[in-house]
Amino acid sequence: MDKGHLVPAHLLEIDMEGRAIAGRGKPSAETGLHTVIYRERPDTRAILHVHTIWNTLLSSMFAQTGHVLLEGYELLKGLSEVITHEHQERVPILANSQDYAVLADQLSQTLRQNPRAHGVLLNRHGLYTWGESAAEARRHLEALEFLFEVEGRRLTSGIG
Amino acid sequence: MDKGHLVPAHLLEIDMEGRAIAGRGKPSAETGLHTVIYRERPDTRAILHVHTIWNTLLSSMFAQTGHVLLEGYELLKGLSEVITHEHQERVPILANSQDYAVLADQLSQTLRQNPRAHGVLLNRHGLYTWGESAAEARRHLEALEFLFEVEGRRLTSGIG
Amino acid sequence: MDKGHLVPAHLLEIDMEGRAIAGRGKPSAETGLHTVIYRERPDTRAILHVHTIWNTLLSSMFAQTGHVLLEGYELLKGLSEVITHEHQERVPILANSQDYAVLADQLSQTLRQNPRAHGVLLNRHGLYTWGESAAEARRHLEALEFLFEVEGRRLTSGIG
Amino acid sequence: MDKGHLVPAHLLEIDMEGRAIAGRGKPSAETGLHTVIYRERPDTRAILHVHTIWNTLLSSMFAQTGHVLLEGYELLKGLSEVITHEHQERVPILANSQDYAVLADQLSQTLRQNPRAHGVLLNRHGLYTWGESAAEARRHLEALEFLFEVEGRRLTSGIG
């Protein structure tokens, strides 16, 4: 469905087992990834998931490394509890899969192993990020996407 | 004519031989490519043809190979009947020509040889894609253009 | 002056010697380049001059060659009287100068030596293009800028 | 706070010691950098500070050199008192720091050592630029950001 045509009537309320409890339609196959995040990060009130050029590129470039490392940028301070550009943010990368039960388990482990991560990439798929409010989730999204583009351009520039 | 100035009165209805049957004006020279697609893909209800930076670049980069190969991306699932990122999409590339009768024949053959292709590129010219509705054609367009840009940037990055 | 704040009262009518004949204010220092184009291309009714990322880059990349060569692209057909992608468009590049009298002379010569050119670049400065109507000048601008970006990206990609 | 949600009631008036004298809230930690600029450049009536892809990239590429050199571009004339593209603009780069008192001292020295600079970069952080009016500060911002992008693309293109 074209996201540009979304209206409130299309929204679906689900419970923590991923069952629809209000609204009409079938929950998305990726619902299980959302409930994992709400479970592992109990303060979370909003999750954003986007497919963009630069998050797709960086997830592919660093798939073997297993994470994208972002450091030394002032905009890291856009991430909650980060107070200095000297912060090192590791954004874990999971292999993509159509088996969402398996993927949910891996996401759960990854969130436990990276308790301070602000986002997780799926290889050649997209970014999950979250926050204690919709505004915070959006701030995390904007900060991470900006940093993915800067870092992607820097690494492929052959300079500095 | 500037597409930004198009109004309904400019639209032309044509038959399957490319003759105008409603509206005023002369059918475009590329009309024959549209009717070939409607013939070879009988479920098609809408065709989109665009000239963009990245489809032009990729058509040129892979002109000798004869196709652009897209694989491993979640967004491939934006193409009808594709249900996994493990799908391999080959987008055939035809040499460009001003002889549209010849080009129509080549397009016809290409569509038969690639029964599951969702789009065809003309070298240094643009993309043809289609769908069973205007919405599906547009979804195919967005998915393919996104993938052309990601794949173009990846291939020229020297990394991953 | 911020072009976003332009209103009709800011426009100035000039004669072919570059003297203001209606409106208030002083003609731009580059007026002499406009009158040269109107003189050398008598069918011209509109001239557009823009500073963009890609025309600046290509003017710099090819300053020593003296022109940008665009060939093989379908969008060349956006230029008046060009009917095939096999057309070769040479966009001459002049050294930039703050001596507009000298620059006007060089532009005049360049236009005579390149009677079929649809635009001229000033090195690290910008593009001049024109047309028999504002719509045609704009079509030329859009075609040339698209081609500068494609060609710039192609040449720096290391591929195809 | 999301800048897209700013309304006049969010604005804070401060004195030259960085103390709020009107409005509600606490001055930003970077306030001290603004007052240094007003002090060292007494004609300044507006300061702009932005984080962009290209200023971040160039500040990183040239951090060791200590400045970005911009020369030969017509758009340099967008900077006040610059009347020729032959101008050399050096944009100094400071190491980023969370100690704003130290950073303010370094900025003060840098402004004295570069009396004709129109902007200063903080490494991997952003640009400060200013003007005798909001319009002039914005013109400086647009000119510098355009030049950062052109120069960044030129340097990483491997050509010209």
Briefly summarize what is shown.
The first copy, chain A, is built from four helices and seven strands. Chain A is α+β, with helices and mostly antiparallel strands and 160 residues long. In chain A, the strands form two sheets. In chain A, strands 3-7-6-5-4 form a five-stranded mixed β-sheet, with helices on both faces. A two-stranded antiparallel ribbon of chain A has the order 1-2.
Q: How large a portion of the residues of chain A is in β-strands, by DSSP E?
A: 15-25%
Structural class of chain A: alpha+beta
* Share of helix of chain A, binned: 25-40%
Provide mean pLDDT of chain A, rounded: 95
What is the terminal-to-terminal distance of chain A? 42 Å
Task: Give a short account of the largest sheet of chain A.
Answer: 5 strands, mixed
pLDDT under 50 segments of chain A (min length 5)?
none
Name the helix and strand elements of chain A from N-terminus to C-terminus, one letter apiece: EEHEHEEHEEH
Quaternary class: homotetramer
Largest interface, Cβ cutoff 8 Å: A-B, 21 and 21 residues
Net shape of chain A: globular
Total helices of chain A: the number is 4
Radius of gyration of chain A, in angstroms, nearest whole number: 16 Å
**Total beta strand runs of chain A:** 7
Features:
homotetramer, 160 residues, alpha+beta, five-stranded mixed sheet, two-stranded antiparallel ribbon, 4 helices, 7 strands, globular
Task: Describe the protein in words.
The structure is a homotetramer of 160-residue chains. With 160 residues, the first copy, chain A, is of the alpha+beta class. The first copy, chain A, has four helices and seven strands; from the N terminus they run ββαβαββαββα. Chain A has helices spanning 31-40, 53-61, 100-113, 134-155, and strands spanning 13-14, 20-22, 46-50, 67-71, 88-94, 119-122, 126-131. In chain A, the strands form two sheets. In chain A, strands 3-7-6-5-4 form a five-stranded mixed sheet, sandwiched between helices. In chain A, helix 1 (31-40) packs parallel to helix 3 and helix 2 packs across helix 4. The longest helix of chain A is centred in the last third of the chain and has 22 residues, at 134-155. Chain A is globular. The mean pLDDT of chain A is 95. At the A-B interface, helix 2 of A face helix 4 of B.
